[in-house]
Amino acid sequence: MLRGIGLNVKKFKNQDFFTLNIIVNRFYIRNKTSNLLNMDSCKNKECLTSQDKLLSKKYYRRAEHRIFVNRSLHLENVKFYGFDMDYTLAEYKSPQYENLGFNLTKERLVHKGYPQEILEFEYDPSFPVRGLWFDTLYGNLLKVDAYGNILVCVHGFEFLKHSQVYELYPNKFLTLDESRVYVLNTLFNLPETYLIACLIDFFTNSPQYAREKTGVRCGDLAMSFKSIFQDVRNAVDYVHIHGDLKKKTTENLDLYLKKDDRLPMFLSRIRESGAKLFILTNSDYNFTDKIMNYLFDFPYGAKPGEPHRNWKTYFDWIVVDAKKPLFFGEGTTLRQVDTRTGALKMGHHVGPLHEGLVYSGGSCDVFTELIGAKGKDVLYIGDHIFGDILKSKKIGGWRTFLIVPELVQELHVWTDKCQLFAQLQNLDIQLGDMYKDLDSSTKEKPDISKLRNAIRDVTHKMDLAYGMLGSLFRSGSRQTFFSSQVVRYADLYAASFLNLMYYPFCYMFRAPAMLMPHESTVAHEQRFTVDTPTIDRSRHSSTQRAFAERALSAACVAEMSSDEAVGPPDAADLKGERSVPHVRPETPQRLTHTHDEDCSDDDDLKHK
């Protein structure tokens, strides 16, 4: 056999066994590659046949009922369900609620000395989108991707051209520097985003103000874009904390708040499944009580025919004034709330948390210890990508469910404007055809200008279908910074937490495969064979190759022994006895990763 591959075994000594094995390996790989090439057509048929054998497409619930998965999560493993209140349990009506915040902030700015003319601004819900960065240096709203590459740049209401963007931002890139950039991530930021754009547009286009690179000037009065932003931020905080926003909201709850009679029933179902419930909100008790009383204001309880119940009876624990994201770090003092007055009781609460009582402040560490939870036992549901999701995931280790109300419109455009997506795909096919028969020897480049313009036109139509600043999740083919945050920190996301109603509490949310371009654009029926040492690294093949090497080495030893060229090898070498514990790792007999299945240690024990 050795002579059959052109080796003169007599020339090899014991110390040359390693060299011999390398030669044998190369011979094995060449033959293996040759066999693959011979089997190419056969394997293609096998791949096509296996695809034909697929039972059916995977079942998905209706789009409006769906919960989308970034990381696999087994509901059976969730022992605690936590809820934020604002924009989660309590969904505010849009644009009515944003319009209220917008008008109150305008009035506050005028009270602080801004021109009366700004009261003429009217809120336009088609303009702002969540997740924008505001560059306080140049006064621009930026839509960026996950890495800070600028996708859209708006100064006031003016969309800047490529040349203008490059002048301000070399390479169309900006680092997320908190001293310069403010991320407008929350639903509460929508009216603020629009008001900033209104003010920048007003001051840079009014004849009495001279425009400068980092602000405006009127005689001896200079206003930087950063100072304008700080004034807006202070006004927004005042309206939310000390102003009339909460008062006007509670005076007209029907106008500003959605009410869903499924809420009591669903929360009862969670408790019937054996899980515990808690509410964790930054709102104070008095506001929380008014909002929650309204949401549970039905003549019946969890089911028609049952008596009405106070909202507190649906939760095991209630925490207000949580001060997230501080709650997930050092936290604040945990105190009990006097529900008759809304005042805090004296002292630091150190005992167990009791059902029916209301607590204020605290920290994630203290809270989870008092309720007996471990990080992954908790599924926390909220709308704030930073305060609710990012910090609870990174610091608390909780599983996370992000509420994205904009998904209703996002899915509507995705399905209703399907012809635009089809046009974009066809244009991409045409672009590929332009380069199909060209290689590095090509001298004349094809004219793709018409195709590029057509792609821009279709992409622009797609963006406008979402709003003036496009989709929350993408700009053309590029995913936004907000999108990357959702993927990174939210295990699940949906338009409403009530979509959980359409899933059993034993449901396995399994994340779809995250394909890279070399996986998503290469069809399985294609056969990729190249003569390279790294192409065949599967453990099954390497095990077979190891057996072949041992057989060849044994034959080599036998031939050399019969010729008396060298002395017989040590018996320990033939038996495979060595001083090291393992010459090579053993092939795993079962799955080594668990992230797709959301396994627990108990599950591992069951399968042993």
UniProtKB/TrEMBL annotation:
Keywords: Hydrolase, Magnesium, Metal-binding
Composition skew (Acidic residues), residue ranges: 598-608
Biased composition, class Basic and acidic residues, residue ranges: 572-597
Matching InterPro entries: HAD-like_sf, HAD-SF_hydro_IG_5-nucl, HAD_sf
Domain of life, source organism: Eukaryota
GO molecular function: 5'-nucleotidase activity; metal ion binding
Spans annotated as Disordered: 561-608
Matches recorded under PANTHER family: 5'-NUCLEOTIDASE DOMAIN-CONTAINING, CYTOSOLIC PURINE 5'-NUCLEOTIDASE
Protein name per its UniProtKB record: Cytosolic purine 5'-nucleotidase isoform X2
Encoding gene, per UniProt annotation: LOC113396190
